[in-house]
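TICKET: design request
STATUS: open
ATTACHED STRUCTURE:
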């Protein structure tokens, strides 16, 4: 048992986050996402919703500053449809990492990119179009 580690960050997920290097990507997948069939590394987080998990991850995980959009969402196919959960993500990202641009990918393009990710986290999230990809940045320690 460790102090101050959110319970949604399992030892397995912490290990994966620590193993990832600059530019590696991780997918936080909703309950409908084909995580098991696409994942190179599958982490189960069935008892977590994505906003809670995203907030916990961003306490420790730097987003990439060398790309235009270190956060990618699965698009709905209709530019006028923006699921409410996306607003929760924006608030979380702003609070943890500042104002960061977010990109949208068409569903099948998102699947292709997810299949190349370092890991996919299968969550219990039931909101539709809740899938998100995070690109890891670097931790800069000032001497």
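STATUS: resolved
RESOLUTION: sequence designed for all positions
ATTACHED SEQUENCE:
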């Amino acid at each position: 048992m460790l102090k101050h580690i959110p319970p949604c960050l399992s030892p397995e997920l912490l290990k994966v986050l620590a193993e990832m290097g600059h530019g590696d990507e991780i997918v936080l997948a909703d309950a409908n996402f084909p995580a098991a069939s696409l994942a190179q590394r599958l982490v189960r987080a069935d008892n977590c919703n994505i906003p809670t998990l995203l907030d916990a991850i961003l306490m420790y995980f730097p987003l990439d500053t060398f790309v235009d959009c270190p956060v990618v969402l699965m698009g709905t196919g209709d530019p006028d449809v923006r699921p409410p959960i996306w607003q929760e993500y924006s608030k979380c990202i702003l609070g943890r990492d500042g104002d960061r641009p977010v990109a949208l990918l068409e569903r099948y393009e998102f699947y292709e990119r997810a299949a190349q990710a370092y890991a996919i986290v299968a969550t219990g999230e039931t909101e539709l179009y809740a899938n998100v990809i995070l690109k890891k940045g670097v931790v800069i320690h000032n001497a």
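CLOSING REMARK: The longest helix spans residues 84-97. DSSP finds five helices and six strands in the chain.
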